[in-house]
Amino acid sequence: MPRILTKGSQSGVEDDHFDWNEEEDLKSYNIAFYDLPDLVPRQNEFLHPWFDEEDAIHLPSRSDVKQFLSGNNDLVIRLPEKEEIQLRGVDRNGNQEDEDGNPIRYDCNLLDWLPFWVSLNDEDSGNDLVEVQDRFEEWEACFSEGFEWQMIIERVGQRGLYGNGEAYGDPRPVKRDSGEPVIQSRVPPSRYGSEVSEKRIAIENVNRTVASKVSLRREDESGEVLESPGSVFLVPPHPEKEFDEFVQDILVDVFELDIEEKPEWVSDYSVPGEHQLRKELEDLESQVRQL
Description:
Blueprint: E1 4-7, E2 16-18, E3 31-35, H1 62-70, E4 74-78, E5 84-88, E6 105-109, E7 116-121, E8 130-132, E9 152-158, E10 160-161, E11 191-192, E12 195-204, E13 209-219, E14 225-227, E15 232-235, H2 243-253, H3 274-290
Parallel strand pairs: 1-2, 1-3, 3-4, 4-15
Antiparallel strand pairs: 5-6, 7-9, 8-12, 10-11, 12-13, 13-14, 13-15
């Protein structure tokens, strides 16, 4: 049985689960599921990933994702309707709230941690006219009765890199003297990331992409183009299925695994010291809310 990781929502199978502010070692797993729609209603809970704080979002580095895929491991991303959300942060004076008492927020692209570029389009109203492509029939369950797409994958491509290539830089505006003009210029990338190979899993009725399989490409010493043995699957949520059903459908139908659901007694069982730790955590959370 491969080692399975879920990030965000929990699933109903035996796996290791991490919340968004918990640090996972992606390279220690064989199949990983990231439930990005889970972040949208929870964006008030977390800080932008650039901030080195306990409640900041943690996502794998681009280099970790590349190594993960090179080891014949697979990453399944449940796509959000929008690429960007606004996460809490701290300004350059150490404030977490503005003058009106509102939390300071910064834009965060939920797909920037991937080693390739993904652009989503949510401007059009979705519909149920979806066709699963040949050789991807095992994904039918993700687009079963009741499915309607809410966004399309507009483009997948090579990512332009800047600076040290880290996904999330300092989101705070540059501090300027009063009256100093703001010069806006588009700086070209200093280099580019891996080339990609995209195969469309499903399309809608005017041939736009609804779901994709993406692999990284590289040339070996002889000049032969090789694809990563592992892939990233970009898949939209089914409006009538929860995350646990999404995971189980893919594990059974796509990866052909015999999954073992967690026994019901697991949620009622606690290890020694767990109740005390939970109480301490609740006390700390209460103190934070009173600040």
